[in-house]
Amino acid sequence: MPTFDEAIAMIERAITPLGPETVALDDAAGRWLAAPLAARYDAPRRDCSIMDGYAVSAATIATGEWLPCVGEVRAGELPSVELKPSEAMRIFTGAFLPAGADCVIMQEYAEIEGNRVRFREGFGPSSHVRTAGSDFRKGDVLVEAGRRLTPQAMVAAAAADHSECEVSRRPRVAIIATGDELVPPGQAAAGEATQADSASFGVAALARAAGAQVVSVVRGGDEIEGLTRFAGDALAQADCVVVTGGASVGAYDLARPMFAKHGLEEIFSRLPIRPGRPVWFGMARGCCVLGLPGNPTSAMVTARLFLKPLLACLQGGTAGAELQFLPMCLGSELAATGSRETFVRARATSEGLVPLTNQLSGAQSPLAQADWLIRCQAEAGARLRGELVYALPF
Questions:
Q1: What residues contact residue 38 under an 8 Å CB cut-off, 6+ apart?
Q2: How far apart are CA 323 and CA 311, in angstroms?
Q3: What is the CATH number of the domain that holds 66?
Q4: How many domains does the chain have?
Q5: 59-78: per-residue pLDDT in tens?
Q6: Averaged over 7-32, what is the pLDDT?
Q7: What CA–CA distance (Å, rounded) separates 175 from 157?
Q8: In terms of DSSP H, where are the helices of the chain?
Q9: pTM
Q10: Which of 31, 2, 25 has the alpha carbon at shortest distance from 311?
């Protein structure tokens, strides 16, 4: 069996990013940039003030000396006059400095009398000036291709002065939940042998949050003919098909056989990880197929570990960008792990990460508390409170 890292590398090698499309900047948030955005102008275009105050030539003023105030300049307009030595001009935040000025004195230090101003001691030494081009220059790339347009990146994208941008097409995801026992939420209480299909709701939400378009969610029973038909329908409309359940080796584990007639090429099956040993991945008719465990908690952990990086790769990003395990402090003891690499569900507290008490793969109620996954190597010993671990935002 490949390791977790080897399996991720296999996914990256198998995937060809989807083609680009051009969208209005208003519609680009959350999308993955397919072409870099370069600035169309210098910012700021000229030296400008970062404070409300008075523009002066620093070398020509003295504390307590009255200076004539020869006008004002606001953001969005050009200075109307050139400043002469021993003159001042009222200036507002973001406004361009007039020619002849090299300093802005904050208004808190100014005493005004008619059309003249003087400054009390203590106004220096900062000039309170942003120099021309100090933020970026025309032609500078402000957002690289292959980066997701987060709210922060959207600021830079807009600053580059583009009304539209080229982004990767949204991956179309089809979800198939297998198992005769599954029914839509709202119907499970009526039957003693049924249970609400919860995993597909979580997987669909994760896929949408990762930039995908969920085109279908179906529940298939444990019957090969019907599942094979569902598989064909999903492959016809999606770039990625996600199957929950049916991934073991029992008589009713049909997740992979349902794709057999559609030319499934398995890339890996079963991994030495906990939870998620039954995870598998392959390609069929040019479409990615990812098999997740049937237990909802295991499905969500493995969707975070495999589906989110997979969707990033389809959109021109990298798996590594979605798998940044950060050093974090433990807020309580962490138990030793067994023979498989383990991803421990934990919650963040003011004391550090606290592993959830119930780590059973079938336990759904604690899942809502989990916001981090602690990565533990196989046969890792117990860790004490305060020790450093590596964890992934869940």
A1: 139, 140, 141, 142, 160
A2: 12
A3: 2.170.190.11
A4: 4
A5: 988 888 999 999 999 999 99
A6: 96
A7: 33
A8: 4-14, 151-159, 199-209, 224-237, 296-302, 308-314
A9: 0.85
A10: 31
